[in-house]
Amino acid sequence: MVQTENTGDSVLRLATTTSTADTGLLDHLLPEFEATHNARVDVIAVGTGQAMKLGERGEVDVLLVHARASEMEFLEAGHAIRRDEVMFNTFLLLGPNADPASIRGRDVVAALKAIRRIGAKFVSRGDDSGTHKRELSFWKSGGGLKTWDGYVETGRGQGQSLMIASEMDAHALCDRGTYLKLRDKISLVPLVETDPQLHNPYGVLVINPKKHHRINKQLATRLAEYLISEPVQKRIAEFRVKGEPLFFPHRRDTH
Asked: What is the number of structural domains in the chain?
């Protein structure tokens, strides 16, 4: 997906996570918005950290990301004028079905410590994405990240990183949506998936036009309101792969 110049009111620049792009969710949601508003949404799919840097520099109009603590800091710093909760899914800690670190069913922090303790392979995105930020928070809770020979950083998006982890027969942290989308192409299985710490909310943020004159505030605000509207929340709930939901809407009445 290519960034283009915002030459008029009909173009909206959206920076979002690779998970929303890899899963096909945006292809499911954006065409109706574009048709309704006679607009084009230019999507830049990057890690959450990079998306927020684009927003801070005024290179995009709106963000759809998943790192709530960082999003609140971004909002409080005045880089955005509003943040709305859109949806959530969960993270999964994936690994070989043989479970060499004996982590199946454990909490995620204990599982990561066990992986490190035996020197098992672990693939990290290493890209300041929402997934990477969450991984680092889990390591911090477990006493800090001390890398080992089996710890590999890809610097790539969720889908590519998951494929690499599968090729290496390694462990990896992944959002449920991307896993379900690629499940038939990989050998890894969920080993940790019910820990409440794996909750993964997504928020939409409208960039502050007072900081950057090229921000399309009107269209960005319309997209935020579109994403949290009842009809679109229902469409998020209905978005499935082989019968399984990839994301869950924030609105309780649409679940």
From this structure: 2
224 belongs to a structural domain: yes
Determine the Cα–Cα distance for residues 193 and 213; give it in Å rounded to an integer.
44
Cα–Cα distance list, 79 to 52, 93, 172, 200, 220 (Å):
9, 32, 32, 22, 14
The answer to whether residues 93 and 11 touch, using CB atoms and an 8 Å cutoff, is no
Q: What is the pLDDT of residues 111-136, one digit of tens each?
A: 999 999 999 999 999 999 999 999 99
Please check whether residues 218 and 243 belong to one and the same domain: yes
CA–CA gap between residue 203 and residue 73 (Å, rounded)? 13
- Give the CATH number for residue 147: 3.40.190.10
Question: Could you give the angle at which helices 130-141 and 48-56 cross, rounded to 10 degrees?
Answer: 120
Question: Counting beta carbons within 10 angstroms of the beta carbon of residue 202, is it exposed (0 to 12), middle (13 to 18) or buried (19 or more)?
Answer: buried
Query: Who's near 169: CB < 8 A, 6+ residues apart?
Result: 96, 121, 187, 188
Q: Contact, 126 vs 132, CB < 8 A?
A: yes
For residue 1, tell me if it sits in a domain. no
Residues present in the chain in total? 255
Give the domain range for residue 16. Answer: 11-88+201-254
State pTM to two decimals.
Answer: 0.87
Tell me, yes or no, whether 160 lies in a domain. yes
| pLDDT, tens digit, 9 for 90 and up, residues 52-78 | 999 999 999 999 999 999 999 999 999
6 domain residue, yes or no: no
Structure tokens of 148? 């080992």
Neighbours of 234 (CB within 10 A): 15
Count of H-run helices and E-run strands, the chain: 10, 12
In this structure, the answer to whether residues 64 and 125 fall within a common structural domain is no
Mean per-residue pLDDT, 13-25: 93
